[in-house]
Amino acid sequence: MTAGLADPHTKMAHVRAADARAIGDAAVAIRAGLLVAFPTETVYGLGANALDGKAVAAIFAAKRRPRFNPLIIHVADTVEARRHGVFSEDAEKLAKEFWPGPLTLVAPKRPQSEVADLATAGLDTIALRVPAGEVARELLQRAGVPIAAPSANLSGHVSATTAAHVASDLGDAVEMVLDGGPTRHGLESTIVRVVEGEPPQLLRAGAIERDAIEIVLGRSLTAPTDGEVTAPGQLGSHYAPRTELRLDATDLRPEEVMLAFGAPPPGIEPALNLSATGDLVEAAANLFSHLRRLDEMEVRRAAVMPIPKTGLGEAINDRLTRAAAPRRRGKGKTR
Ligand code: TXA
Ligand code: MG
After folding, report:
1. Reported pTM
2. 153 lines ligand 1 (CB under 6 A)
3. How many CB atoms lie within 10 A of CB 31?
4. Ligand 1 close to Cβ of residue 127 (< 6 A)
5. Separation of CA 150 and ligand 1 centre (Å)
6. Is the C-beta atom of 151 inside 6 A of ligand 1?
């Protein structure tokens, strides 16, 4: 739709050279809840307004991610990062040394942070990064909101380091691709978990080498279990609501409330509806917050209506199945 400097090879009219005007338009698109792919100094990111759960859900749909892995939240500076994450002494040291730059810090998420639960996959930690790439920095400044952005590739593909890669992977799923040329590092950011009282942990090796980080911290990083990050979204236990869940439910039994999807069965008033219109994007956006709300209601069990297994429904069902799985630890009578 957008007229721009399209590369004929990509057949994508919405690839635009990342000049001031295109970045301004991209910022408007982000604020409107649309997806924008943009270059960072590491790889291209597929960005959405991190405060907008529906926009974040669209990221997972565009990437065809089968699971809701938590996303990296890109912010303009350290001051903004501290509004969303609790910074330990180690976090402060690393931010001072490496930001802006290809380092992602995983820190406890502040309860006041308005970053959508889906962006952090319902975890109590948040991955934050202040990118160094000029286009990314300008986009963040102009958008004025934190931008959730995984690498701009289809799930299972390698990260995209040029706008053409992004366009061929994501096609029309993205409103605009800002073309800033090939990325400088071509390798994703290094991810370090920094939580007060825990030894700092290298979750993913990346563009900043371990040694450089250890020198700044004055201690060694605990090793990642295997080269790649243990994506918490893939651990069955990472977010389990206290409320028991009964899946694919079409009726309501004693001591249950209904978590609906689409029109509820006749005569049943659902406690919550993931999407009254049966929209999977909306359901994904609501999923983690609705599970939390069920906990707040202190109900014994929720009957969850069937959700189609197609598209984003695969990820929604994956998360619900994990959330419904028997707990490994005690039930926890108190909150
Ligand atoms: O260089 C990069 O980091 C690029 C650019 C676009 O910034 N982004 C990127 O995002 O590589 P993605 O989604 O492809 O990888 C993010 C990784 C995932 O493996 C995810 O599991 C991990 O970060 N992650 C996010 N939040 C986390 C958290 N709270 N705890 C542990 N790991 C987390
Ligand atoms: Mg990736």
Report:
1. 0.83
2. no
3. 16
4. yes
5. 6
6. yes
Averaged over successive runs of 10 residues, the pLDDT of the chain (335 residues) comes to 42 81 98 98 96 97 89 98 98 98 97 96 95 98 98 86 90 94 89 96 88 95 58 47 93 96 96 96 84 88 95 84 69 32
Cα gap 69→97, rounded to integer Å: 28
Residues with a beta carbon under 5 angstroms from ion ligand 2: 151
Token pair belonging to 33 = 């809840």
* 202 close to ligand 1 (CB < 6 Angstrom): no
DSSP state of 247: -
**How far apart (Å, rounded) are the C-alpha atoms in residues 60 and 62?**
6
Residue 213's Cα: distance from chain center in Å? 25
CB within 8 A of 198, min separation 6: which ones? none
E strands in the chain? 15-17, 36-39, 44-49, 72-74, 103-108, 125-129, 147-148, 176-179, 190-193, 201-204, 244-246, 256-260, 272-273, 301-304
Nearest CA to ligand 1 atom 3: 189
